[in-house]
Design brief:
- It is built from eleven helices and twelve strands.
- Helix 4 packs across helix 5 and helix 9 packs across helix 10 (273-284).
- The protein is 44% helix and 22% strand.
- The N and C termini lie far apart (53 Å).
- The protein has helices at 3-10, 111-120, 137-146, 154-176, 192-204, 212-219, 223-234, 238-256, 261-267, 273-284, 288-295, and strands spanning 17-21, 29-37, 43-47, 52-58, 62-66, 77-79, 83-88, 93-98, 100-109, 127-128, 131-135, 177-178.
- The strands form three sheets. Strands 1-2-9-4-7-11 form a six-stranded antiparallel beta sheet, with helices on both faces. A four-stranded antiparallel beta sheet has the order 3-8-5-6, with no helix packed on it.
- It is of the alpha+beta class and 297 residues long.
Length: 297
């Protein structure tokens, strides 16, 4: 049975539209459009163990609860339209759904990330962080780009899908990837690949305002080695680099977009608009609105 058919069957859906993508070499990414009304009674869904990840992009507000391995159930939770869940299927998974359910289900074999490291020169990823009900604009945009493709002619669709699949996998690796245990070189410095991996992860998670402990866990370092290795390699502490990068990113957003100041602040990881205005004014010398008026492209 094809992966898409297996997923649809698990959700109690007889037939579902599906896309199969090969972004790089042999590993296949399946995208299934699930749409079903379960009514008021809850419907259990059991997904078998698999060396893969499941990413759900909800297209409507969805009510469901997790079923734990001991068969007890978590409290019912509403996942808003546009939010995403990302889980590992290593040990299988189970949920109980009620009401209208519509989502894009992405089945992503772990082999995709091995190919991403080998073929595209990306850092190796051993695992992805589990996320439930979070907002991820990149995944929302990718889902929006995929929806029309279910009805496109094959020759048009097949030219576009690999690029979209590669963009999705790279985003997942950068934002949610967990690296294997890392060690510094004898000089106490990061390798070029390690430095790239850490900076890419911090840039991809700028709005999340990650702590040093979280960055260390995601990139495979102890906190002490991350701090010392980053400082020895870049001449900046992790906090100093993040602060400088936030300002660079904010300036780019101010000059290229008409986004409200509050939105720029949130995107760049500032606590609130006032904190951003104060930090920007002290660093750049003028307030964000004035800087924008002088530098708008």
């Amino acid at each position: 049975m094809a992966v898409s058919d297996r997923i649809a069957t698990c959700f109690g859906i007889g037939a579902a539209r599906a896309l199969v993508i090969k972004p790089l070499r042999e590993a296949k990414l399946s995208v299934v459009h699930l749409d079903h009304v379960y009514g008021d009674a809850e419907h259990p869904v059991f997904l078998p163990a698999d060396d893969a990840f499941l990413l759900m992009l909800y297209l409507v507000d969805v009510d469901h609860r997790d079923i734990r391995p001991d068969q007890t159930v978590a409290p019912l939770k509403t996942y808003p339209k546009g939010s995403v869940c990302l889980i590992s299927l290593r040990h299988g998974a189970a949920i109980s759904i009620r009401g209208h359910f519509e989502a894009l289900a992405f089945h992503i074999p772990n082999s995709h990330f091995a190919e991403l490291a080998e073929e595209a020169g990306e850092p190796r990823v051993d695992d992805l962080a589990t996320c439930r009900g979070i907002d991820d604009q990149v995944i929302r945009n990718i889902g929006g780009a995929l929806m029309p493709m279910f009805d496109m002619p094959d020759e048009v669709r097949d030219q576009l899908l690999p690029h979209i699949g590669l963009a999705l996998n790279a985003h997942l690796a950068h934002r949610y990837g967990r690296s294997p245990a890392q060690r510094l070189s004898a000089s106490g410095r990061l390798s070029p690949m390690q430095e790239k991996r850490i900076k890419t992860y911090m840039a991809a998670n700028l709005s999340a305002n990650m702590t040093v402990d979280q960055i260390a866990e995601a990139t495979g370092f102890s906190v002490d080695e991350l701090r010392s290795g980053f400082l020895n390699t870049t001449g900046q502490s992790v906090a100093e680099w993040m602060s400088a990068y936030r300002m660079t990113r904010a300036q780019a957003q101010l000059s290229r977009t008409g986004d409200p100041i509050a939105q720029v602040a949130a995107t760049c990881g500032f606590a609130d608009e006032d904190t951003f205005i104060d930090a920007f004014s002290k660093t750049v010398g003028v307030a964000p609105t004035e800087w924008r008026s002088r530098n708008r492209h």
